[in-house]
Amino acid sequence: MGTHYPVLPIDRSVWEAALSPSQYFESLQSHKRLVGELQRDLRIEREDAELVIGALFAPADVDAEESDSRELFALAMTEDWCGDSAHVLPYIARLTETIHLPMRIIRRSTHEDLAAWYREQGTEQIPVLSVGTIDGGSFVELARWVERPQAAADRIEEWRQANPRFVALNGSDRSEEEEREYRVLYARLLHEMKTWYRDQGLWRTIAQELAAALAPGQE
To answer: What CA dihedral angle connects 196, 42, 16 and 69, to 10 degrees?
Structure first.
């Protein structure tokens, strides 16, 4: 196709040794209750699954049951504490399961070399999802999706503007009283995010953005 694709500094053994989504969610130390609630409530719309299948397995009428023969893989890097991951990874995991795209999850702190490679590529945020093939022992990345959908980014920015106290406390040294205040505000933000994704359709924008990221790689 004449297109240059990045090659992650991992091989198939690293991907295979990583956690399956169910293993990762079971091992969570943060946001486990929130993730469980979202897992119970989310559903994958057929048209969203078909949109991603069309981008992954062109031509668009390839059946999802044939996907395994394509030898495509998904790898997500994250950390338990990440609020964005708590909201988007349950959906991504369910989506990849629905379309028969094998997925693994790794923690950034346990793969410093890969984290450094992403930073060199201009990606510092988590979660980061790479979709690609494993060719000759190397993971060739066909598409990358990072952190949160644009619709969520816009709403978070609006929320931050409406809550300047959160912005002031975030990333600063906090007293015990300020830490309690910050935790209350952060819990409020997480609740708002849950509403956006679960009740207002933001999960579906993830499928749309992932399909758009994959589309340039199609002939």
So the answer is: -110
Strands (E), the chain: 7-8, 72-78, 103-107, 128-135, 138-146
Answer yes or no: is 190 within a domain.
no
Question: What CATH number did the domain enclosing 118 receive?
Answer: 3.40.30.10
Range of the domain at 211: 7-147+201-217
| Residue 57 placed within a domain | yes
Are the C-beta atoms of residues 88 and 127 closer than 8 Å to each other? yes
Residue 27 in domain:
yes
pTM to 2 decimals?
0.89
Residue with tokens 């984290």: 115
Q: Are 89 and 76 in contact (CB under 8 A)?
A: yes
Angle at 162 between CA 160 and CA 165, to 5 degrees: 70
| Spatial distance between the Cα atoms of 209 and 196, rounded to a whole number of angstroms | 17
Task: Determine, yes or no, domain membership for 12.
Answer: yes
> Given its phi and psi angles, is residue 180 left (phi above 0), alpha (psi -120 to 50 degrees) or beta?
alpha
The tens place of each residue's pLDDT in the chain, 219 residues long, gives 335 689 999 988 999 999 999 999 999 999 999 999 999 999 999 999 999 998 887 644 344 454 445 589 999 999 999 999 999 999 999 999 999 999 999 999 999 999 999 999 999 999 999 999 987 678 999 999 999 999 999 999 999 999 999 999 987 789 999 999 999 999 999 999 999 999 999 999 999 999 999 876 444
Question: How many domains does the chain contain in total?
Answer: 1
